[in-house]
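User: Can you recover a sequence for this backbone? Please restate the input before giving your answer.

Assistant: Of course. Working from this structure:
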């Protein structure tokens, strides 16, 4: 088989221009569809992240209010001990600053 015959054989099996254009159009449609799906998934994920962040913030707020209530109750029940502990903490902080 000569080179010319081989070339003709390869060209005979190759798709024509219309087939290539149809395939490219199909691929473009697929890419657009996938891009739309990814965008929707991204928006849904963002909504879920926002919802979870708000729930976490509410939970943290409740926990902080609960800790504050417990601290206030402890200070009311034991005012002298609370004042002594506060002064000790202030003294340690002051000593640490003065040492530097």
């Amino acid at each position: 088989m000569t080179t010319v015959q081989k070339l003709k054989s390869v060209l005979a099996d190759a798709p024509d221009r219309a087939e290539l254009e149809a395939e490219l159009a199909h691929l473009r449609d697929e890419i657009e569809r996938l891009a739309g799906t990814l965008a929707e998934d991204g928006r849904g994920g963002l909504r879920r992240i926002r919802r979870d962040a708000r729930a976490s913030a509410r939970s943290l707020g409740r926990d902080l209010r609960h800790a504050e209530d417990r601290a206030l109750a402890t200070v009311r029940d034991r005012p002298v001990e609370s004042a002594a502990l506060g002064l000790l903490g202030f003294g340690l902080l002051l000593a640490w600053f003065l040492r530097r």
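That completes the design. Residues 17-77 form the longest helix (61 residues).
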